[in-house]
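Weekly modeling sync, notes
Attendees: S.R. (lead), two postdocs, one rotation student

Agenda item 3: backlog of single-chain predictions. S.R. asked that every request posted to the team notebook include the full sequence so nobody has to chase files. The rotation student volunteered to paste the first one in as an example of the format we agreed on. Action items at the bottom.

Example entry:
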Amino acid sequence: MPELGGRVVLVAGAAGGLGAAAANACAAAGATVVLLGRKVAKLNRVYDSVARLGPEPLLYPLDLEGASPDDYAALAERLESELGRLDGLLHCAANFPGLTPFALGDPAAFARAIHVNLTARAWLTQACLPLLRQREDAAVVFALDDPQRVGQAYWGGYGVAQYGLRGLLDSLHHELGNGPVRVSGLQPGPMRTGLRARAFTHEEDAVAVDPVNYAQACVQLLAADGAPWRGRVLELPA
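Predicted structure, as returned to the notebook:
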């Protein structure tokens, strides 16, 4: 049986680099993938690709910046009514406006980065927990950035949120450690994505690779084989 055969996996940020690559890999591994993102045109392209690789996916356009806890509750209700289950939640959605000195930064942009990268992930996870708890084995996976890099100067709210995400991961792990829902993190190496292009030009970023290189690691953490990584972060080199 495929690694994710029969499972339903929600990919937040499915239109982005890692999100799209992971959605395709999950479909190829047998999962029914729910594609969550704000850019409908890009989501449609990912939908077509995922549909060719595995079970028919579900498209769910939603802007995490403006979504409320009620919006996430409505998403969970739709998943339960249309699919009857949720086995995995992969957080890939991110917001990064670019490198900016703190003294010159836009306060609204700082708050937006904190919200999309941290608060929205927490709200979405909270809304999905009742569904996830119904499974014998379920996984929540947070895509993380390297704090040694984004904790440096000019990374603003995005860098701060990365530290908060690790705190959220640890807190959830200790709360859910004895139940069926396991929480883990994935820290890929530098990826050639639109987000990273806001910090590095192509000419100076020779180490970045295609996000496809890390898609199988997402499948691993979402599958039953990811159990050894419960409460831990899988760090992958470039």
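Discussion: group reviewed the output briefly. The mean pLDDT is 93.
Action items: rotation student to repeat for the remaining queue; S.R. to check formatting next week.
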